[in-house]
Specification:
The N and C termini lie far apart (75 Å). This protein is of the alpha+beta class and 556 residues long. It contains 16 helices and 27 strands. The protein has a four-stranded antiparallel β-sheet. Strands 6-3-10-7 form a four-stranded mixed β-sheet. The longest helix has 45 residues.
Length: 556
Amino acid sequence: MNPTGFADQTAPDSLPKGWTWAALAEIARINPALDVRITDDARQVSFVPMAAVDEGFGGVQRPQVRDFGQVKKGYTPFQMDDVIMAKITPCMENGKGGVIRGKPGEVFFGSTEFHVLRARTGVLPAWIGSFLAQERIRRAARLGMQGSAGQLRVPQEFLERLHLPLPPSAEQQRIADRIDELFTDLAAGVAALKRVRRNLSRYRAAVLHSAVTGRLTEAWRKQHGPPEEPGSKLLERILVERRRQWEKRTLAKYEAKGKEPPKNWRDRYPEPAPPKPSADGSPLPPLPEGWCWASMDQLFSTVRNGTAIVPRADQGIPILRISAVRPLRVDLEDVRHLTETEAQRADAWVEGGDLFFTRYNGSTRLCGVCGRVVECDFPLVHPDKLIKCRVVDGLVNGEFVEIAANSGHSRATIESRLRTTAGQVGVSGTDVKNTPIPMPPLDEQSTIVEAVNEKLSQIDALEAEVERGLARASRLRQAILKAAFEGKLVPQDPTDEPASVLLRRISKEATTQAASGYRDNGAVRRKRAQPIRPVAKARQVARALNARCAERKRRR
């Protein structure tokens, strides 16, 4: 089979008997006008925005209803059995398109970012739709896109140059029926996998919620009895150690500058704020015996933003992207680069154990989430859109803080403090510091972390298996389409009318239509107007010409 769909690479003998190669423009009208006339602006029509079209050539699922007068100008018209295909990136690459299903006479208008193909008599719309649903065709279309970055579009010329194998009409129907049968079975399997994925996502959230509310370690507490050091006593030790570490860092700064600290330097210690009730005044949720509420500020020895230097270097010192931080994860390979001089000036180095909160994001779901760096054995910088926090060494389990920050009341508090500015959702370091966090005894924190890691590793393994299943389903879908266009999906019937005869009939029909004076102009189909010049007008023009000629002779 022609690997690209273009005629210059076609091997005539590569098709089954009775098939032929055809230009897409021969068997379908590309971006035609409607075949119906509408004169009533109040008539209701179906409106199809890009969001109403499913990916993977799944067709229109959620059309709207509008009056014809609202959409007759500035939108793309199409009708039942037309094939639509998104032409703009990334919708085209995602396969937004499909065959329009509806009632006879139903009229559709939609985004201007659709190409429309109307199959000619004897060609099944599903045959054209299945051809365009192939990933190899979308890859070829991607290479032929025109325009600027972010506004790339597939030109109509790409479709006009595209060629595809054409079987007899009867075989097109047999193949389409077989594809529907196989795709129905495949869709059922995909739907089951997606249900499993959703259930795993819910289970993950349930594990995290039970970890920070004490339900996960309820049996552990019963087995071990009351803690030797409850959370409230642990918090007292944390606050003492937090101050000691601040004093140590402060003295080191004065020593590095060769200065003696002032007499009142200890009075400058920033006392961390205790946990506060919810914004609506409601008290903090109850906790298990031996736990207490703390503020993140009490548990963090340092909180700081990163560098505002914009990374433009192709190589050098890596700097994290904001997308590197996701709940319970920091991807150290998701980076851009600074020059070595810029990195030294930034002084925003990443170390193992650092906790990062996303300070800005386009999504509420991903703003203020927390990820922890397990270890970092190479120079790495973080940007100002990430808030870096370090827990008080030795007394706070950073992994537990990471879990608590992404779930339960702590996560809900952060979400309640998100603000939107210029389309970006943001949270401040102060908001993070003032967020309440549950504080179990230290040994229970370790038990929680161990239990969560075990359960999440099981969930990760199951999710990976689900994703492999979905990938296999996608490959199988493409394999079915490939077999269909190679004539291997159903047996050929030698009694079928050859596709070459069909193609000649289509050509003759197109010629007859063209000779009748009809044209496709992107609006309602109208008959071509014939130029008419009244006799009086012709005489008037002739008299004017004669007068100008006489004037020229007179001047000579």
